[in-house]
Amino acid sequence: MTTRKIIHVDMDAFYASVEQRDRPELRGRPVVVGGPPTSRSVVAAASYEARRYGVRSAMSSAEAKRRCPELVFVRPDFSRYVAVSGQLREIFRSVTELIEPLALDEAYLDVTHNKLAEPLAGKIARDLKLRIKKELHLTASAGVGPNKLVAKLASDHQKPDGLVIVPPDQVDAFLLPMPVEKLWGVGPATQKRLHDLGVHTVAELRLLPESTLLERLGNFGPFLRRLAFGDDPRSVEPHRVAKSHGAERTFEHDLRSVSEMDGVIDRLAERVAGEVAEGGRPGRTVTLKVRYADFTTLTRSRSLPSPTADATRISKVAQGLLRATEAPHRPVRLLGVSMSGLLGEEEALQLELPLDV
User: How far apart are CA 194 and CA 184, in angstroms?
Assistant: First the structure.
């Protein structure tokens, strides 16, 4: 069986880097792409100068300003980011048609068989980085591995402007020290369950019996164990496009206060808005998910007249949907907010999208 050769390319601080490239006065300064701190907007991207202060994507603009008073806030120009992303995609297509975009600024490439007839995936990744720097005047980090899991972890290993190559015989050495939360699909809830089992690293995860993982994590458990052993069967899917972005939270103690629920919805909306903005494709439909104490679960949705990536707008719609449920009168175990009806790239290209409407 042929060993796959996968490259994950991730642009460095993409939106902020495009702004710094095109506006020389911003170079070397801490820059945030997003709405002003006086609004309830979120950070769509932060330059590396801003990240030194702990500023991160999806953080509220107000919190970002508190961490770095010298921040320069720049309104997003998604039409420009989409255009640069299209140029990036053309560079990828010169190598392979097996491209799976995850957002405007990152993608998987399967170069097992490529247009250059180049046997070394590491050389292809190095050449891609050089072309991106020469043609787009931007930097990218790349990871090379035998599957998507390893390639993505590798691209994140030496940011910015990094290149990490993990051959098949070095996968174990690369994965074993990794924190379990680095594995695909391990969010805060799964991380807590694993930590409760005394599992903090991939090496420790490998020692758990599959039966224990099945009991604690359901069907995801055995799949997670496969990932811990560096076995990722997922293929690069050229036509994969995100259909929605969402976030949810399960509470240790049921919520009974509507004001508490509104506060949770605010925070969930900020996370969703951050993901939507990062993907560069605002959405039209807000969906609220409610699970009551007796585990009865329902969803309510509302479509908007115009697309948005604004946290305040998403939150207000979700809070309105909450009041159309029995939540004000029944204890709530879980709340979730999601955004769907995302614009296609062609539509997004024509859209100037402020984050603080």
Answer: 14
CA distances from 88 to 10, 101, 150 (A): 11, 11, 22
Q: Does 67 lie in the same domain as 127? A: no
Is 158 within a domain? yes
Reference 33, options 48, 21, 47; nearest CA is 47
114: left (phi over 0), alpha (psi -120 to 50) or beta: beta
Q: Is beta strand 332-340 parallel, antiparallel or unpaired with respect to 297-308?
A: unpaired
The reply to whether 336 and 248 lie within a common domain is yes
The enclosing domain of 265 has a CATH number of 3.30.1490.100
Residue listed under structure tokens 């420790």 = 204
What is d(CA 78, CA 307) in angstroms, rounded to the nearest whole number?
Answer: 13
pLDDT, tens digit (0-9, with 9 covering 90-100), for 216-270: 888 889 999 999 999 998 999 886 666 788 888 888 788 998 988 998 898 888 8
Total domain count for the chain? 4
pTM for the full predicted model: 0.72
Q: Is residue 355 part of a domain?
A: no
In a domain, 311, yes or no: yes
Looking at the annotation, which residues are catalytic? 106
User: For residue 251, what pLDDT is reported?
Assistant: 83
CB-based contact 166:143 (threshold 8 Å): yes
Element (H or E) spanning 293, and its range? none
| Sequence-distant contacts of 79-86: CB under 8 A, at least 24 apart | 79/348, 79/349, 79/350, 79/351, 79/352, 80/18, 80/22, 81/14, 81/15, 81/18, 81/105, 81/280, 82/280, 82/345, 82/348, 82/349, 83/349, 84/14, 84/18, 84/136, 84/138, 85/280, 85/345, 86/345
- Per-residue pLDDT at 134: 97
Whether 90 has a pLDDT exceeding 60, the answer reads yes
Q: Are residues 129 and 84 in the same domain?
A: yes
